[in-house]
Description:
It comes from Belliella kenyensis. The chain crosses the membrane at residues 79-101. It holds the Pfam family TPR_6. Keywords: Membrane, Transmembrane, Transmembrane helix. With 242 residues, the protein is mainly alpha-helical. It has helices at 3-15, 20-32, 34-46, 56-70, 79-103, 106-113, 131-141, 145-159, 165-174, 178-185, 193-209, 213-226, 231-240. The chain has 2 domains: 3-65; 108-240, Tetratricopeptide repeat domain (Serine Threonine Protein Phosphatase 5, Tetratricopeptide repeat). Helix 7 runs antiparallel to helix 8. Residues 48-55, 70-77 and 97-103 have low confidence and may be disordered.
Amino acid sequence: MEKKDKEKLIEKFFDGTISSEEEQELKKLIKEDASVKEAIQFQAALKKTMHEEDDMAWRKKFTEYEKEFSTVKRKEFPLIKYAAIVGFLVGLLISILWVIYRDNSTMKLYQAFYTPAENISYPLTRGDQDELVNLAFSTYEEGDYEGAIPYLKQLQAETGSIDLSLYIGSAHLALNQTSEAIYNLNPQAEVSYDFKYRFQWYLALAYLQADNASEARKVLENIVENGDYKVSAAESLLAKLP
């Protein structure tokens, strides 16, 4: 591998944009190329990434990395130097894993997958349309979620449609009002079938915003097993959950 390619790989690692295949290549280079190891050591010294995390999955992955790297070419180093090298590698591994898990945090996953719920209830068209419907959904579709919520709630009160809670919950999500979003996206009354898995998708995102990966996982698994909306996205999100 050329020097510029190695530098790009190291840059991706510290930026948190490294893919799983590139990560494996970096592991290999750390074992085989002293210059790569030295470059990472230099960059790691500039980063303040020694964060403690009480997460079992994190600890398991860290143990796997530690075992892999701590066995690198043991016989090539004098005993005194070996202790110093292992100490550096442990620090480096913490840095690597902090980058990986930082980018897979629930909030970052929420931000990557969230888009406002599409208006399938009252498509806005020219011509006669109820004024309140126009106010509610034109404001919603313009992205003025704070302004849209009162109109949507008033429309729901007048029509009795529980399905409108989808848009209310989606608007609360966009405003980072997590508890209100979960309340609206987990209605007690039965929603129409066309809305059932839309509600579940946005409820899963609300749980991610609340940093509740376990509840998000349950909802996503149900979408994958039984749903007909965002099934591929749910599978992708499940694979990325911490």
